[in-house]
Structure formats: C-alpha cells, structure tokens
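Worked example

This section walks through a single chain of length 402. The input is the sequence exactly as stored; nothing has been trimmed or padded.
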Amino acid sequence: MKRRTGQDRAITQRWRPATQAVRGGTARSEFGETSEALFLTSGYAYDCAEDAAARFRGDQVGMTYSRLQNPTVEMLEQRVALMEGTEAARATATGMAAMTAALLCQLQTGDHVVAGRAAFGSCRWLVDTLLPKFGIGATVVDARDPQAFIDATRPETKIYFFETPANPTMDIVDLAAVCRIARERGIVSVVDNAFATPALQRPVEFGADVVAHSATKMMDGQGRVLAGVVCGTEDFINNTLLPFHRNTGPTLSPFNAWVVLKGLETLDLRIRRQSENSLKVGRFLEGRVPRILHPGLASHPQHNLAMSQMEAAGSIFAFEVDGGREQAHGLLDALTLIDISNNIGDSRSLMTHPSSTTHSGVDEAKRLEMGVTEGMLRINVGLEDPQDLIDDLDQALRKVGL
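Given that input, the structure is written out below as tokens.
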C-alpha cells in the first residue's frame, strides 16, 4: 500500500471552520476512499529492524503503536486543531482525560493553579481534590471578574483554568482580558471550550494558550461515544503533553475517533440550529420561571460579552424553580418528550438536575458557592421542533404549579 495522501496545511488553514469540519485532516490511502478510513490496529509492522529503530528514535516518519499514533485518530487531531486555529492537537479517551492531561502534564509539586469556581463537577474535583494530593495549590475565583485572577495569582502560579460558558451556571469569562492577564505574567491559560466548540467560539483568537474539549458533547453530537481533545502549539503538544499522554495512556480508540469525525461533518449545521431552538425555548421559559440563565437572552447579565465572543449562544442553558429539589424533580418526572439525562450536546433534548447528578460529588457549600442551587435545572435543546419542546415544558410546568 502506498503512503496515504495527506493535505497541504497551508491550504487547509485558509478554509473556514465549516469547511475544515468536513474536510480538515483527511488523509487517503491508495484506494481513494471519500469517507475517512477506520484503522482498527494496535500495532504496525516494519520492513526491517532498522526501520523500527529509526521510528523509535524519531528519525523516520511513521506509526509505531496506537497508544502513540493511529491514522484515524490523527485525522481527528488535525481536523480539530484546524478548527480551533492551533498548531496541533492530541485526542484522549474522554473529555475528563483531556482536562486532566492538560493540567497534570505541566504541573508539579509546589505549583499553583487559579481556576474558575463555576465548572463541571469533575473539573472542580480535579482542582479541589486531585491537585492538592500532589502538593499543587489551587485557588478558585469568580471567573466573571478578571481582577479575581490577578488577586489570586502567586509567584508559583502556572495555570489559569476555566470554562466559558460554564457548566451549568452559564457564567461567561472575558477571554481577552483573562488571557491577556495570563500572558503578561507568563501563566498558561487552559480553556474548556466544550459548550461552544470552535464552530461558535475560538479561544485562541482571544489569546488562549491551550483549549480542551469533551468531544463527547457537540462534536459527536448524537450521544454515541466518549472522546476528548487538547489543542495548543506544536511545542506544547509534542514536548509537554505527549510525554504525559504516551506514558499514562488516556488513548482514544480509532472507532470513537471515526465516529467523532463523522459528527464534525454536521457540527456547524447542528449547533446553529440547536442554538436557534434554544433561544426559542429560552424565550418561552423566561416568562414562566423565576430565573433563567441563557447567554443568548438580553436578561443574562453577561449577554453582551457572550455575544462578542460567540457566534451564537449554543444549545445549553439553565433555569431555576422556587421549590428546590422536590419541584425540580417533579418537573423532570412530568416531561413526556424531553429525556432526563446528564449528557449534553446531543441532537435530542435532555434535561438534568445538576445538584443531584453532575455536581452531586461536590460539597453542598461549594455547590452553592458555584451557584448550583437545589432548584436549578440544565437543559440541552436538541433538533426537535422547538414548539413540541415548548409544549412539553408547558405541561410539565403546569403540573408543578408554574
């Protein structure tokens, strides 16, 4: 078999994100397949012993082992890097593997991290529990205030870690301001971009150093597989992240990479339609519930900032009911169309009660500090007709007295 035909990066970099999502990173074998080939192999054979030695020395280009390289996974990595506008990317088995690797690969005992307090429950666990076990200090701040990062910075601070929009409170971080503060102090900014994806927001355009994703979410988009991606400079990916990844092994399977590649082909269409649907559902709920947190609505306290950083508000938002967990669970139980599920990014509409699911492992006091109340519900608006979703929410709200 001939060497696979790859792409000229100078050309693909000029493509717009929607084109990159369909064609970026594609490499074809001698068969000329139009769909990306699925390489289900753990190892690779060499023509001679010296070729094997040369590849392990780094003197010869080629694959050695699928924990390190795989043609299908490599196509995904190149595609996401193009979409994010970074030089390189490394795929991981899950979104949390991406977040963990992005942090631990550049930290050691005595270092310090400043992190946004509003975050996915497992990300808070990394900051609150895992890092301190290794003697790494962490300070959580209200990431909506750039000054909070300055005030929390120490001489040993190495990373600013935050997500925007934040899960599930939909806090928005001023990317340009916080990333500028980090650059001025020689600190690496690590941004979780899973909610927006590069289809709606590209943090590197605002100065971010590292961008991490749960590709399980909008990138796959149909609730099929787990995957993660870390994006950054070639130096960071190859010299900082790769040694950690190679030796700890949070490797993405070729099949899951192939599924995400297929999902990326429709990402631009899906996320924009879901954003439109989400706004329609949000406008309905705005007049029915005590509080709604939707960046696309003018009522969101950071609406203008969100719309200056994002091309659309995305499919996910949160709202609150007055009756705490009992009323929130009652509303969920009354749904007939929208599924009760803790996943997001799916083409199906899903809703969950973060306090008892995604953030149940976070101490109650910390949950309240983050803004995750007992009455909060998070919804992922899918591709169904938005009026059907509104009808379902309307009948469920009435059943719980709203």
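What to look for: The chain has two domains: 17-264, 268-399.
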